[in-house]
Protein 1
Amino acid sequence: MKSPTASICATAFLVTILSATVQIADADRFSLGNRPRLVLNPGKSLVLNRLRGGGIPSFSGLPIAEKSEPSSGTASIKLSLNYKVDGGVIVAVGPSSAFGNGDIHKAPKLQQKGGERWEAVVQVPLSDALVKYQYVVLSKTHRYEARIAERSVSLLGLSDGAKVDVQDAFRSPRPAVLATSCFTRAIFGRGLQAANVATENPAVPSDKLTWSAGAAGSDDVVFRFVVFAPRKEAGHSIWVTGKPAALGAWEPSKMVPMASLGSGLYAGQVTVARKDFPFEYKYAVLDAAGAEAAKEKDARKAALDGADPAAKFVVRDEAFNYPTGAFKAFGMAIPVSGIKTGDSTGIGEFLDLKKVVDWCTKTGLQLIQILPINDSGEDPSPYSASSSFALHPCYVRPSAVCDYYKSKFGTDMAGPAGWAKSLVEKLNGNWKIDHPKVLDEKRKIIDAIFDTVGQAKVLEDPEFQAWLQHSESWVKTYAAFKVQLGKEKNCNNKWFDATTWGKRATETATMVAPGGPDYGTVVRTYFVQYHLHLQLLEASKYAETHGIALKGDLPIGVTRCSSDVWAEPNLFKLDRNAGAPGNPEQNWGFPPYNWDQMHRDGCSWWRRRLAHMEQYFHAYRIDHVLGFFRMWEIPKNGGGGQYVPSGGLREQGLKNLRAIQTASNMLICGEDLGNVPPEVGPVLVELGICGLKIQRWCDGKTWEYPYLNVAASSCHDCSPCRLWWNENWGEAEAFFGRLIGPGQQCPGGPPDWVSQKIIKMHADTSALLSVCPIQDLVDMWGGLRSQNPKGDLINKPGSTDGCWIWRMHKSMEDLIKEDKYNDFVRNMLKSSNCGRVY
């Protein structure tokens, strides 16, 4: 049986946690980023049943401190790490003075103790309560641990002179990507719904873990297990079991509970007699009913080899060894504008994404990738944003705005609602997007809805006011920008700097003040952005609760005529244009970033921008990630560009990408196509940023792709596979002979079985993600193909003719009804182990 010291627990504190109420749907309607998760009231009884014992293991015994008052004195922490280093040293750097105050050159160095073992002893004041650190390999090219899962050691419960032995494992960026919100909040987490959270490991902050719960005797060791296990289905929990009685003697009903520390980290603690070392143990996953869902194949061994004989406290930090291969997911790409449903108004709308989610659940797809959705005015290109924060008004659904005021205030919306219905009938039959017509019609009906509701009622809405306060850092400047944009008739083109206007962003407060001459326009701007926010948030929440991630797109630049340039011109090089070398040279028209200026305030603009995106997205694509390393800069008034900087690309890329990586918990994917410098790939891997592989532009062997990649059959900037097959017959023949039918004659068309082979190769990829355009997916089924593949093209770089007007030829409702096709896709993905968690 367990020793008395092993069974000491803080049940009272756990019940305190259980009594806390967190309404995920209502507590934070505006920001759904990372936040501590407490056990919810709806599942309180489920967890309390576990506390009482029975067939399901109990969550009692967690090492939780009832009080978090730190002690005085110091503790000695011995760090040990097994890691191969070819030239160089390892340091442990953290924010405290004991770990160098964040400076890798002042951080304590580990000493090599033979082979791959490194050790260091660090004296820390107990008043710190919690020490944080990460390992960095200092060599010709520094190598950092993954930053997603924070490494820490709590000091609560230790007395002066205590010795703690820490046995660490280097945290690779490869598995760490599974701790991003793409997985923890969507694909695995399924929206963190109350019923699922109730049966998961209780969330406990790292600084609440205490050593005093172990109450070690003179011949005992308090052993804390810390495991990185982000790959876990919603409602499941992580446990540890082993040979000693304190670990349940391998009995399933006596497994040791673990607390969730966030970011895929779990901690459990037992007291073991020193004579019982070494001992064997394993980590396991239990489902919501307490049944074993997964367990490590091979037992681990806990030993005190190399530990200080006086050490009574040990931390073992490691990663869960999953019994199946690496996790991978399959998704689809579609611009919001191109979605067609029975409710669309001539263009795809945010709420149409819910129908896309419904189709994804039918087919087993787990991610939806879209193009940029920021306001680009009358420019149909989504990469010509006039704001990095404001959403494009074309994506609002007028009928949903009518429903909002009818249900909330009882407003008679019959007139505008009927108008909205007639617009669907009028515009939804178009096979391509008529941007001017759609914008004009939506502008008229949204104005009519606003007038029907009335400005006073709009402003009286408490939820509207809460959103306005939350969005104040950008929306007021944007509203002032829109007011002035309407007045600058000669200088409202994306090639003209907004900084030349008659009014400056410093006058925003006056321009948006209540009672001012333009206040009506200002409130209408707020009104549109508020409902765009609600509708996109609704679609995002719907996606994540169905286990589907929403992936956004981060354009590499913003236009000169943008609220960003107007408000913060110092962040941009306004005397230059960004572009690309070539004959002819490409001039994109937007100003390059002034990175030196951005870093002066810790890249605040980037941090605000990404925090804003994280309300809606679980992952994002960086358009032209090479621009974070260097940019082709062209003098504004003439050609003859050059790369800036011309050298030091690795340091430049690391500095810039690390700054934005810490701004959110979204999965980052970089579009690294084109003339790629050799420094780019290693930096992306080191930071855990996925690259991009377009099959026709590489060797095409999807099953040999490096894990940190997105495999794609095509993208919005090139021809879909069927069109490419017809336009580039020679390339298609070579592709077919190499990857599909060696020695066979290449068929024309191509037939649907060739399209199926292409998608199957992407399902069989060794990359983390496969994201194929919806055009390539439906081409697998002859009866679903469009009549003319030329009509499937979204964009042709370097041209504006026929670009950005694509609409899906089939409605999402039609695709949802295609049971045979949907089953075919689902079975294909299942046979390739896409989406398999354990």
Protein 2
Amino acid sequence: RQGTAVRASSPVRAAYLLKEDFKQLPKATRRALTDRMVIYDASKGISVQLRNDAMGAKGLTRLTISTVAVDFDQGALLAKIIAEMTTFGMRLFNASVSTDRATGKVVDTFDILREDGTQVPESSFDALRQVIVLLLNPRKTSRSTMPAIFGKLPGSDQIMEPPPVSTKEQEEGPITREAAQIDAQLAESVIGTISESERTAGVLKDQIMVAEDLIRSADDEGAAVVKERRELKERADQARTALAAADMALAELNSVQAQVNEAVEAGALQDEIEALTGQLEFAELNLSAQQVASDEAAAALQRLIKGIEVSKIAAAAAQEAPALPLELLEPPVAPPPPEAPPVGFQQEAVEVEEEAPAYQATGTGYEILLQAFNWESWRGNYYDNLRGSVKEIAGQGVTAMWLPPPSQSVSDQGYLPGDLWNLNSEYGSEQSLRDCLNTVRDEGIIPLADIVVNHRCAQGQDSQGRWNQYHGRMNWGTWAITADSGMFGGTGRAKEEENFTAAPNLDHTNDTVRRDISEWLNYLRSDVGYEGWRFDYVKGYPGKYTGEYIANTHPAPKMVVGEFWDTCSYTEGVLDYNQNAHRQRTINWIDSTGGRSGAFDFTTKAVLQEAIGRREYWRLIDPAGRPPGVLGFWPSRAVTFIDNHDTGSTLNHWPFPSHGIAQGYAYILTHPGTPTVFTDHLYDGNLRGGILALMDLRKKLRIHSRSSVKILGVDAEHYAAMIDGGALIVKIGPGDFSPHMDERAREVSNKWDIAASGDEWCVWVQN
């Protein structure tokens, strides 16, 4: 019922059964197990020998245990000894067991090394010998020889006999029971550890049962799933090993706890209580360590199971026509016509199309966006330096450029803006900004301003020293600040959305606030020279106001994207496979703008970096056979990216795995949605060549925001997809794939040439 497998050069299997459990087994099973039992009886004598470079064990330390096996009432401790080898930082290389059934004599041999690959020094032999003896014959009331710190073997000088009883104790007898109570905090901690261990064990048992069902299913399916069956069996065996080790650690903790309670009840001496408490602390640490191993085993098994389940989804989807994005199944309702500009504001005449294209929010649908700054770009003459690079950037295929916040700001990076109309910032003067924008537009690139209007820093303080007095053209008062911006004394409407605590949050329900923001945006669009917006921190205010600001901008912005950075769904720190709810919240925000804005596809970033970082490429298909991000539902509004100034750069709040960045670009630059290239990556010598090649392919093959995707293959090791019915095929991951071996690819063409490739990614086009 409980068992553990130990990996060594010669496999060893051991089981630990309680007497009651053994008696409940079928008679035939008990008879079979009896022939394999190794039961230690300390009363018959124990010999523990240690020797370096024994015959047949050159370079190793050999541990030999000789005793007599008689009755299973003592419990089979072989597995426990093997487990303790790991506990004490020992690596097991070989183990053998020989039993003389006639005499009951047992000789166990273990060849071991320390974790650093060296032999156990002879100076530590006595300490290790006494630890082994203690394991085989635990004493109930004596000084513990167990180490106080988990994983550390005590030196021989640390193991000694109990100190002599003091004169006071001889005269007064044992100390009072009240004085010998164990620490309440330790007792509470032990209870919590036991409870958590039982929970973990339950989860692991459930995963093992699911794995066993899948193994049986794989047996029925035959040779087609040999690899799956082998991986499942290995993971299930590892899970059983972890479960058995945790069970034994739990039994040990319960045993030591019982000894402590008995000693306290018997009025034992303080030093004996302290010794037992040391054993209790160690046993708890041991159980905690085993619990971590069980958690990891459960998570690994769960991910493998999920990968197999998803592979079946992919296999089924491959036999059918690719699932269309919801956008094409149910086209979104066209946004209402733009509202009139603010009264008194002069605007240039613009021609309004009768029916705007569905992808208007993110440009023509063929855009490649460059984030042209990082967290440190404010250092130096940013606008002037960028202006000198624009021609080269345009030649590389960039069609839109995201620039930093333009206004005066409390923070150097621009994300704590103050006077919005003051365009002199750490990035450069207003004139250098205008010159830069002129150059960007001249090269046919759409310049986007980073619009920060969730919050605004005040220029003056009130009588209580609170920063809530605004100066300049937008000379607002506390009425412009939300009521829940307590430290700033806001008197506006309380927010229902997410609060940004570092600055006064703006009350967008206020007509004056919205009118002034719209007027400022029109100034940036028609006078300064921006042609699109990137809205910062849009979770802080209703999306309908973002839609209003876009509608009130004249001429209409050519491209708009919002930063709706929402939290993904995780279990035990691991990203859940199904992120439908996460992407739906992003889609709901886009919809709340009237469809006028796109949104950064944080769902795709989360899934893509988890798939590459953990080698779980099966994550890259949703239960319906679509890509799992926003691009799988509403691709014309999905703006994909790998990293930005927040997630990467010097902040590194949520960085993409560095070894997989090139694979990430191979994905987003070949897939629908509007891809974003981060300037740090574009100018990284290890990444630049691959990114430029992919950008060139996207442009030549006319891949666009609503290109079709047919997923050809997905498992733990690779992801492959055909784009636009055969315009290209892309593969990422270390697994094997070739279009020449794929029937669906051969139906499109028998000749596929590699157009671009790199470390664990490749793109093919038809010859």
